[in-house]
Write a structure and sequence with these properties.
Elements: E1 3-5, E2 14-18, H1 23-35, E3 37-43, H2 49-60, E4 64-68, E5 71-77, E6 89-90, H3 95-105, E7 111-115, H4 126-135, E8 138-141, H5 142-145, E9 147-153, E10 161-163, H6 169-179, E11 185-189, H7 197-204, E12 210-212, E13 215-219, E14 228-230, H8 235-247, E15 252-259, H9 266-273, E16 277-282, E17 291-297, E18 305-306, H10 318-326, E19 331-334, H11 347-357, E20 361-365, E21 368-372, E22 380-383, H12 388-398, E23 405-408, H13 420-428
Parallel strand pairs: 2-15, 3-14, 6-7, 10-11, 18-19, 22-23
Antiparallel strand pairs: 1-23, 3-5, 4-5, 7-9, 8-9, 11-13, 12-13, 15-17, 16-17, 19-21, 20-21
Bound molecules: shikimate-3-phosphate (S3P) and phosphoenolpyruvate (PEP).
Length: 429
């Protein structure tokens, strides 16, 4: 297994970086480009492994997708333009690809099989296959519909009224995409608000979707029209440098063009609560996906409690928030985050195991973790466990370590942030 020696004992981080495109919006731009009518262009698309898996699946479904100088062109011909794939649809490591794609395929009158990597093979799919079967799709999968491989033959869909058992934007989005193909109005009830990129993109592509508090309603049979999509930077990627800027001494970092959709900004709220020296310069307030610049400086942080409705708005940032908490004054408690157990890894276990190796005082709980602050981090051999966010969190942790740190399996990072190390090195110079 490959491993890299990480930079340790770093005295300061300084400079400006342009955060790469948002992963959630990049996936959706390809999907909406494919199901809309006409030529959609996408700029600042994230060329991470997960989004490349989405492109590859849609090509196998017969959609022409071209890339030139970082700009994508997607030639959509509506849902009807998709055709039966002759090969397996391989989603790689991407939960977003497989779950949203199932929503699209549920309404298509042909057969397809979805596969992914080892990590995808452990992630629960019943949360999507069950409601899609209720709508009329024929779906079978390993262990009674629970795990990949998944075989789908789409059907004539009937709308449902469905209360989501978990707060998940992936499940919500799969049902919206199926609902667009159903005969009537689909109603979805969320237990807590989750990222709303799918809803925003339906409107951007000329469609309609209603939202009343936590109830979402969408009519089937709408015709979507191709658009020019510009993807803002990914706040979940920016989070690693926000934390790094706050905890590495004498730092001052500017992060340009970061997506600021309010269903994604829980990390900013936590930084504020912890007392971070953070400045936000809002720019594209009125666009479908608002964005702006963030300036973070070394901060004197205080521990906090993170629980309840804020959790879905920072779910992917919890590994890096845990690291930040090891450097705060006092204790930080994270609750109601059991969804972390079904991500690329069990992120409660992998965060605790790897940070303990570096000397942090952190404990796992049934639904989160307890982190004691003011830890001096040492060194050792750590592993990403094949999880991009664990790999990046450990690379930021290493900056504070006074011993040597070796990271096993660093290549996982290219799932969401292929140029992560070049951005980090630029700030260290
Ligand atoms: O819809 C999306 O783009 C995502 C939703 C979240 O997953 P869940 O829907 O499983 O919470 C998040 O963790 C994932 O990184 C991306
Ligand atoms: C959970 C993640 O992604 P996905 O569910 O798409 O694999 C993530 O990016 O942290």
């Amino acid at each position: 297994m490959e491993s890299v020696k990480l930079k340790t004992n770093v005295n300061r981080l300084n400079g400006k970086i342009e955060i790469p495109g948002d992963k959630s919006i990049s996936h959706r731009s390809v999907m909406f480009g494919a199901i809309a009518h006409g030529e959609t262009t996408v700029t600042n698309f994230l060329p991470g492994e997960d989004c490349l898996s989405t492109i590859s699946c849609f090509r196998k479904l017969g959609v022409r997708i071209e890339e030139e100088n970082g700009k994508l062109r997607i030639y959509g011909a509506g849902f009807e333009g998709l055709s039966e794939p002759s090969e397996l649809l391989d989603v790689g490591n991407s939960g977003t690809t497989i779950r949203l794609l199932m929503g699209i395929l549920a309404g298509r009158p042909f057969f397809s099989t979805l596969v992914g990597d080892q990590s995808i093979g452990k992630r629960p799919m019943t949360r999507v296959t069950d409601p899609l079967k209720q709508m009329g799709a024929a779906i079978d999968a390993r262990q009674n519909g629970a795990y990949t491989p998944i075989a789908i033959r789409g059907g004539n869909l009937t709308p449902i009224h469905y209360q989501l058992p978990v707060a998940s934007a992936q499940v919500k989005s799969a049902l919206i995409l199926a609902g667009l193909q159903a005969d009537g109005k689909t109603t979805i009830l969320e237990p807590a608000e989750t990222r709303d990129h799918t809803e925003r993109m339906i409107r951007q592509f000329g469609g309609e979707i209603e939202k009343d508090n936590r109830v979402i309603m969408v009519e089937g049979g709408q015709k979507l029209t191709a658009q020019a999509v510009h993807v803002p930077g990914d706040i979940s990627s920016a989070a690693f440098f926000l934390a790094a800027g706050a905890i590495v001494p004498e730092s001052n970092i500017t992060l340009k063009n970061v997506g600021l959709n309010p269903t994604r900004t829980g990390m900013i709220e936590v930084l504020r609560r912890m007392g971070a020296n953070l400045e936000l310069i809002q720019k594209n307030k009125d666009s479908y996906e608002p964005s702006g610049d963030l300036v973070i400086k070394t901060s004197n942080l205080t521990g906090t409690v993170i629980e309840g409705d804020i959790i879905p708005t920072l779910i992917d940032e919890i590994p890096i928030i845990a690291l930040m908490a090891t450097q705060a004054n006092g204790t930080t408690v994270i609750k109601n985050a059991e969804e972390l157990k079904v991500k690329e890894t069990n992120r409660i276990d992998t965060v605790v195991e790897e940070l303990q190796k570096l000397g942090a005082a952190i404990e796992a709980t049934a639904d989160g973790m307890i982190i004691h602050g003011n830890s001096r981090l040492t060194g050792g051999t750590v592993s990403s466990h094949g999880d991009h966010r664990i790999g990046m969190m450990l690379a930021i942790a290493a900056l504070l370590c006074d011993g040597e740190v070796l990271l096993e399996n660093p290549e996982a990072i290219s799932v969401s942030y292929p140029n992560f190390f070049s951005h980090l090195n630029k700030l260290i110079q």
